[in-house]
C-alpha cells in the first residue's frame, strides 16, 4: 500500500547532498573573517541558507548569509546564486569590516550593508500647473466610473527621496474619505480633475502651504451668514 509520502529519488538525494556541502563551505568562508573568540563563546552565530527569490528580475535562488549577535545586532546579505555557485571571493566582497564585529559585540546596532546614496533631487519642471494648493480635486485611483476619489491638493512637485534625479509628480493630494496622501503622476484630466462643482482655478490658496483650518473657517463663516439671512427673512 502506498502512503502519502514519497521517498526522494537518487538524483534528489545527490542534489541535497551537494547543496548541504556547498552551504557548509560558504559558512566556513564566512567564519574565517569573524574573531574565533566570538564563535567559541557563541557571541556570533553564522547561518547560511538558500532562499527562493520572488523578484522576476533577480536570480531564482539566493544564498543568504546571516551574522547574528546578541541584542538583535548583526547583518544579513545575499549572494544572487545557489550555494554551489558561490566563490570565496564573493563572500570576501560582501563581508563587513572587522570593526563592525566589535560594535555588534558591544550591542551597537550599526547597519551593513550601508544604505545606498540617495540621488540628488534635481530641479522640478518649469511648468505652470492647473490646480493651486488647496484646490478641491478628484483623482483616478481605480478603473471605471466609480474609480474617482475626492481630495485636496496639498503640495506641488512631489517626490520620494529614492526617485531618480529630476523625477517629480505634479501633485500630492490628501484624500477626503480615506484621509491619506497620494500623488498624481500627471497633470491630465484622466489622472486628476477639478472636483464636481469646482473650477480648475481652485480656492486660490497659498502655493507653498496648505491650511485646512482656514478653509474650514471660511465655510463656517458662510454658514453663519446664511443662517442670519434666514432669520431676517423669517422676521
Topology:
Blueprint: H1 10-31, H2 36-40, E1 44-52, E2 61-69, E3 74-79, H3 88-94, H4 98-105, E4 136-140, E5 148-158, E6 169-175, E7 181-184, E8 192-194, H5 212-234
Antiparallel strand pairs: 1-2, 2-3, 4-5, 4-8, 5-6, 6-7
Descriptive overview:
With 235 residues, the chain is α+β, with helices and mostly antiparallel strands. 28% of the residues lie in helices and 23% in strands. It is built from five helices and eight strands. The strands form two sheets. A five-stranded antiparallel β-sheet has the order 7-6-5-4-8, with no helix packed on it. β2 (61-69) and β3 (74-79) form a beta hairpin. The longest helix is centred in the C-terminal third of the chain and has 23 residues, at 212-234. The N and C termini lie far apart (97 Å).
Amino acid at each position: 500500500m502506498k502512503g502519502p509520502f514519497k521517498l526522494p529519488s537518487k538524483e534528489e538525494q545527490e542534489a541535497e547532498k551537494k547543496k548541504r556541502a556547498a552551504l557548509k563551505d560558504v559558512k566556513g568562508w564566512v567564519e574565517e573573517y569573524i574573531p574565533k573568540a566570538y564563535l567559541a563563546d557563541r557571541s556570533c552565530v553564522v547561518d547560511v541558507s538558500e532562499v527562493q527569490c520572488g523578484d522576476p528580475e533577480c536570480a531564482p535562488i539566493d544564498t543568504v548569509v546571516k551574522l547574528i549577535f546578541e541584542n538583535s545586532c548583526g547583518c544579513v546579505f545575499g549572494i544572487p546564486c545557489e550555494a554551489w555557485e558561490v566563490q570565496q571571493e564573493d563572500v570576501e566582497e560582501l563581508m563587513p569590516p572587522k570593526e563592525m564585529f566589535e560594535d555588534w559585540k558591544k550591542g551597537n546596532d550599526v547597519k551593513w550593508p550601508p544604505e545606498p546614496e540617495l540621488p540628488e533631487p534635481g530641479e522640478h519642471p518649469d511648468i505652470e500647473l492647473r490646480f493651486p494648493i488647496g484646490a478641491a480635486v478628484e483623482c483616478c485611483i481605480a478603473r471605471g466610473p466609480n474609480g474617482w476619489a475626492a481630495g485636496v491638493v496639498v503640495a506641488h512637485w512631489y517626490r520620494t527621496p529614492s526617485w531618480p534625479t529630476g523625477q517629480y509628480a505634479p501633485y500630492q493630494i490628501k484624500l477626503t474619505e480615506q484621509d491619506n496622501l497620494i500623488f498624481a503622476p500627471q497633470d491630465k484630466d484622466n489622472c486628476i480633475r477639478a472636483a464636481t462643482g469646482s473650477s480648475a482655478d481652485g480656492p486660490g490658496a497659498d502655493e507653498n502651504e496648505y491650511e485646512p483650518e482656514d478653509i474650514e473657517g471660511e465655510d463656517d463663516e458662510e454658514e453663519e451668514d446664511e443662517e442670519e439671512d434666514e432669520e431676517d427673512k423669517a422676521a
